[in-house]
Amino acid sequence: LSPPSPVYDCIVVGAGIQGSCAAYHLAKNQRKTLLLEQFVLPHSRGSSHGQTRIIRKAYKEDFYAHMMEESYELWAQLEKEAGVQLCRQTGLLLMGPETGKDYQLMKDAMQRNKLPLVILNPEEFSQHIPNVNLTGGDGALVDTTAGVLYADRALSAVQRLFQVLGGVIKDGQKVTDIKPGPVVTVTTAAAVYQAKSLVITVGTWASKVLSPIGLNLPLQVLKINVCYWKEKVAGSYSVNRRFPCFIQLESQEASHDIYGLPSNEYPGLMKVCYHTGSETDPDDRDGQTDRSDVEILKRYVSRCFPGLVPVPAVVESCMYTVTPDLHFVLDYHPAHRNIVIGAGFSGHGFKFAPVVGKVLYELTMGQVPSHDLSPFRIGRFQPHAGSAQ
Ligand SMILES: Cc1cc2nc3c(=O)[nH]c(=O)nc-3n(C[C@H](O)[C@H](O)[C@H](O)COP(=O)(O)OP(=O)(O)OC[C@H]3O[C@@H](n4cnc5c(N)ncnc54)[C@H](O)[C@@H]3O)c2cc1C
Ligand SMILES: O=C(O)[C@@H]1CCCCN1
Fold this sequence. Notes:
Layout: E1 7-13, H1 17-28, E2 33-36, E3 52-55, H2 62-82, E4 87-89, E5 92-97, H3 101-112, E6 117-120, H4 122-128, E7 138-143, E8 147-150, H5 151-164, E9 168-170, E10 175-179, E11 184-188, E12 192-200, H6 206-210, E13 220-231, E14 245-248, E15 258-261, E16 269-274, E17 278-279, H7 292-304, E18 308-322, E19 329-333, E20 336-343, H8 353-364
Parallel strand pairs: 1-2, 1-12, 2-9, 5-14, 12-20
Antiparallel strand pairs: 3-8, 4-8, 5-7, 6-7, 10-11, 11-12, 13-16, 13-17, 13-18, 14-15, 15-16, 19-20
Helix pairs in contact: 1-5, 1-8, 2-5
The site of flavin-adenine dinucleotide (FAD) has 36 residues, from α1, β3, β13 and β18.
């Protein structure tokens, strides 16, 4: 007979970047924590895989800019603890119609929050960034604090630190049943576990995990085609030359943003993607074969990035979990205060993970969270449900 499993202080379900960071904060605060993951780690079937993500403070909402102040500090601390470089400063080039709403809101917010930014007029732009064509009527500014986050490296570093702090990871164990109660019971094919509190950070699987425990959130799962484009002259858009990340707002070609990161993980290939995709079931991601976004990107790349071959050389897959307002879900389960949810990161959550992990930890402890979580409440979708504060 195997010995009974201990009652953990907390079980975290889902070992993507959000769950791993929550588990790290729990272990750092002496909580006996189990992190459960359905796949064998590392894997590329969710939202946290791949080499790179953008980190930036440029946001039109002040609450994100404020969270990023702390997030930068926590990333630096993680770098120190893990002894690996996780961020590389390149700057973020923001382009968009000068009179457009989004460009103005972003610029205003950066000025209001006194973030270091450089505004480039068209002459300065072609002088400093000769291999990008700025669209007539577009403004351009650079968030100089921004850069590249090494995503895969960050995920494994956080998981390693969690284990060093005494945390337990069990991968290849899909959670198939959750029984709420003062002690929560969690079942996988391999075992039954118990904990005083539960954190659910299951990415695109959120609806599948939450609806059996009575919570239906308006989440949409999108498959993103992650496209890499060959440099005509190798290295011309390279991170080594400090070519910046970029976001293009309201381009002629697209109804959603287009964004890119300098060539880095595949030398000679720059990542340029469309900030939306087609709806999919996370368990059948590869069954979604729509490539209409790639056609949009081809037209944009050929017009604005003349130094790239306008046909993607590599296409990989990733998924977004999108909320109606594109803001995250960070809250208690409305009926069970010892179940805490982190979901709906809407394609921009990686850079916040250390802060998200911290506030999810604070919620499990019943502490007042160190950031205002009102934009992230479940009650915004369900006006009569309870909420975090
Ligand atoms: C193409 C792309 C580009 C992006 N660019 C940026 C960017 O530039 N900057 C930025 O900040 N963010 C960016 N993001 C967003 C960011 O990557 C995500 O917000 C973040 O990775 C979400 O992490 P997560 O932990 O919520 O989800 P996931 O990484 O998917 O983790 C959830 C985990 O839960 C596991 N799981 C699910 N169900 C179960 C179950 N029943 N039992 C056990 N385990 C389960 C899954 O297998 C998975 O490992 C991008 C995302 C994509 C796809
Ligand atoms: O989170 C980010 O910074 C990027 C912006 C562009 C779209 C993908 N996510």
